[in-house]
Amino acid sequence: MFRLERRAGRNFVSALGLSLLAFSVATPQPVDAAVIAGPTLDQAPAGEGYPYVAIAFRALRNTTLVSFVFQNRGNADTIVLVADPFPGLSIQTPANTPSYKATVNWQLTAGQTYWLVDEYASKYYSNARYAAWDQPLPSNSDIALVASSLFGYDLPEVLNNTWGFGPNSYWVAFNAITTSPLTGFSGSAPEASTWAALLLGFAALAGLRARRFRVGRGRAAVSRHEPAG
User: Fold this and answer.
1) Domain range holding 144?
2) Which of 6, 3, 2, 20 is closest to 204 using CA atoms?
């Protein structure tokens, strides 16, 4: 009886391990983030500059903007994600952090164009750094840049490119733009073989539980019929 219980225990552990393995395979796994690095942004306006600057990109699939680096002149600021005509999502950036990594969780919808805007609270002064660019605008599996040099004195001027800068004449404010589908998880459905392994593991657990129950009932029956010592 003791050997039978030990064997049942070993089988129970094996079945449990199989189930956990199958479950870990069935659970969506992290996927690699996609990054648009951009150039080094080390220039600042010689004079006052435009207080509103932006880049624009189009979402190629449903994805999430998870982080970017805001290159600035060290003042506290506001960054807004705008999807015209919808209201924007925003974060505040601290002072004295000229290279600030912003971590966000902003959902992007396939086919939609977005503007990532630095809205500095000044009438004529710019807080953003920039670089001359004049190269093809990059893309990755999640987003494609459509403009890297938008300037204005207010948000409508940025969205409409009122001042007529070429879409890639400069690169302003933001680099290391990082996206990841569903906040870093693939969300793909498990394969049939995965579900089969998962179900097999749980079936084995159920069978071993039933077997232990029968063994327990048998021991109880034997103990009832044994003569008192």
Assistant:
1) 34-184
2) 20
